[in-house]
Write a structure and sequence with these properties.
The complex is a heterodimer. Chain A is mostly helical. Chain A is built from ten helices and two strands, in the order H-H-H-H-H-E-E-H-H-H-H-H. Chain A has two domains: 169 residues, no CATH class; 75 residues, no CATH class. Chain B is globular and about 65 Å long. In chain B, 50% of the residues are buried. The chains are: A mainly alpha, B alpha/beta. The interface between A and B is large, with 32 and 42 residues. The structure holds adenosine-5'-diphosphate (ADP) and magnesium ion (MG). Adenosine-5'-diphosphate (ADP) binds next to helix 1 of chain B. Adenosine-5'-diphosphate binds next to helix 1 of chain B.
Chain lengths: 271, 279
């Protein structure tokens, strides 16, 4: 179950998407997600999906991997869709049976919601697949660096994120090791109701917490030994420079945005 | 030879500061004097709690002595303004490789130290490449650390220290969590750093055979230095070492119990001596 979480997983590569500046990728991903939610009809949405497919193809990340990123949120998507179908009351009525009223507006909204959430997840996964976590946190740090007054805070936050990302696989391994050790002692972690299972997790989580504290303590020592002293006077090995690729990426999203605005104006809104 | 690290009658206690009158102070390290010169290869032995890690942490201003003084290239560790300089000169590698790797990509982790020193990007790149080549991990520079073996991770940790271009490297039981293959990799790397780059090495370990390959062995007991000398001399004190919970290398023990002449450390020396005595 835990292994399904693909967020923060990086696929090394050398595609045009990989080579784009992380700052540009971050900004464009956010812009893309905003635009996705501004699409008012299927034409506009189709254009955004098409550009997403183009970007995925350019990235060279296998389609299977990209689609897998949707799996963990399937429940959320289903839930949102069902809620929308039953609660949105606009458009023509399709079904009126006792307390259930389904309208065309509800169905459209549900479909839109599904597509939007999937596109959102795929777009942000594409960012993490093509950008190493360190580059992402660096990108965030540098995007905020002109704001001098909050620079120290952003640096600390970025460092915390880097370390968290670094330790996720380590902690997952450890979680599995402890789970197996407890199972070998006869712990039953898989049966029973939710409360029982949550209780059974306590003997797994307590050791995990304790070793995490020790890890944090040792890591702090190791960082001090390597002369870490915050943002002040720190330089970076990898310089970030905008290149032609970033200009292309920018234009690409700009045209897509223009297209969505035009399509929104020319065709009837459905949501 | 130039002195790099010097302990001068050092005392250190983890206890809260208490009145001198309030009974005994538990010294983690006491009356410790020690000098590491350029090109030294020193092994530090001692059972758990004998003060080895405390010694390591005193050497680069992670801990500051309560009495006495530790100097790194003439700089006292008490001089707070120069702590960074001290840590640049004396690098430290710890036991658990997982807990000292900061970044999610090998080369970015190795760059962490030089970045903290505020070097130019081109200079950092050069140092990172050199360090990764020195430990034989250059091909893995774009990997994620968690996919590496224990020995490889520990070599990355060593490269992270090397990239700061220290003059002395302290390894605190850095082989203790590794399998035999990983141990061998780390040992060979450390040996190479010493032989080829003339780096001073302080190698804290539990394994006698690792200590046997040092030029000098220091045995710690209750925060004090019990023996300090060439491995072959130190390992003659079998009974005394046993008393403090340490062993001697098997070859040495066999040779001593057979009453073979000479000071024997390795298996091949031992077989030679046995063959000689049979002739
Ligand atoms: N963080 C600490 N707080 C209190 N006492 C400590 C701490 N670390 C070590 N000690 C004590 O200091 C002594 C020396 O420990 P240490 O230097 O870690 O020994 P070694 O590395 O040889 O096992 C031990 O008696 C230990 O209990
Ligand atoms: Mg120790």
């Amino acid at each position: 179950m835990i292994k399904d979480i693909t967020i923060g997983q990086y696929f090394p590569g050398n595609s045009v998407i990989h080579r784009m500046d992380p700052r540009m990728k971050l900004v464009l991903t956010i812009v893309y997600i905003v635009i996705i939610f501004l699409c008012k009809n299927f034409w506009a949405l189709g254009l955004m999906l098409l550009s997403l497919v183009v970007m995925c193809a350019l990235s060279g990340v296998p389609a299977k991997v990209i689609l897998k990123s949707i799996k963990p949120i399937a429940i959320i998507i289903t839930f949102t869709a069902i809620l929308n179908i039953f609660y949105v009351r606009t458009g023509e009525p399709l079904l009126d049976w006792h307390f259930i009223h389904i309208t065309t507006g509800g169905v459209f909204t549900a479909v839109f919601m599904i597509i939007r959430i999937c596109a959102l997840v795929v777009a942000s996964s594409l960012l993490t697949y093509t950008t190493s976590p360190t580059q992402i946190t660096d990108g965030i740090e540098r995007l905020f660096s002109p704001l001098k007054f909050m620079r120290g805070g952003v640096h600390t936050l970025a460092m915390m994120m880097t370390i968290a990302l670094r330790f996720i696989p380590t902690l997952i391994d450890e979680f599995e090791k402890i789970t197996n050790a407890q199972k070998a002692r006869g712990a039953d972690l898989e049966t029973g109701n939710l409360v029982e299972r949550a209780k059974a997790l306590i003997p797994v989580l307590v050791p995990l917490f304790i070793t995490s504290f020790r890890r944090a303590y040792e890591l702090a020592f190791a960082m001090e030994c390597r002369c870490y002293h915050g943002a002040e006077g720190r330089t970076r090995m990898k310089i970030m420079k905008y290149s032609k690729l970033d200009a292309f990426g920018f234009l690409f999203i700009l045209f897509a945005t223009g297209g969505v605005i035009a399509l929104n104006m020319f065709f009837r809104h459905v949501v | 030879m130039e002195s790099i690290l010097k302990f001068d009658d050092v005392y250190f206690s983890y206890d809260e500061e208490t009145d001198e009158t309030q009974g005994e102070v538990h010294w983690a390290v006491s009356a410790l004097s020690l000098e590491v010169k350029r090109g030294d290869f020193i092994a530090v032995l001692g059972h758990n709690g004998s003060g080895k890690s405390t010694l390591a942490k005193l050497s680069n201003a992670i801990l500051i002595p309560d009495k006495g003084e530790v100097t790194v290239k003439g700089i006292s560790t008490k001089d707070e303004d120069r702590t960074l300089e001290i840590r640049k000169h004396v690098g430290m590698v710890f036991q658990n490789p997982d807990n000292q790797i900061v970044a999610t990509v090998v080369e970015e982790d190795v760059a962490f130290g030089p970045e903290n020193l505020g070097l130019e990007p081109a200079e950092i790149r050069e140092r990172v490449d050199d360090a990764l080549k020195a430990v034989g991990m250059y091909e893995f520079r774009e990997n994620e650390p968690h996919n590496l073996s224990g020995g490889q991770k520990q070599r990355v940790a060593i490269a992270g220290i090397l990239a700061m271009r220290p003059e002395c490297i302290v390894l605190d039981e850095s082989t203790a969590m590794l399998d035999p293959k990983g141990r061998r990799e780390v040992l060979e790397t450390v040996r190479k750093l010493h032989d080829e780059f003339g780096m001073a090495v302080v190698f804290i370990t539990h394994y006698m055979d690792e200590a046997a390959m040092a030029d000098r062995v220091i045995v710690m007991e209750q925060g004090k230095v019990l023996f300090d000398g060439a491995p072959c001399d130190v390992f003659q004190n079998v009974d005394e070492l046993r008393r403090v919970g340490l062993d001697v290398p098997q070859a040495t023990e066999l040779a001593l119990s057979l009453g073979l002449p000479g000071k024997i450390l390795t298996l091949s020396e031992c077989t030679d001596a046995i063959v000689d005595s049979l002739k």
